[in-house]
Amino acid sequence: MTDGRESTASPAQGRQRTGEDGSSETEFMKLLGLRLREFGEYASYFLSAKRDQIKLSTRTLILVTALVCLEIVVLAGIMIIGAWFFVQGLAGLLGDLFDKAWIGNLLAGGLVLCGTALMTWIGVNYYQNKKKRETIDRYEARQRQQQSDYGHSVDTRSETPE
Question: Is the CB of residue 64 less than 8 Å from the CB of residue 128?
Answer without folding.
Answer: no
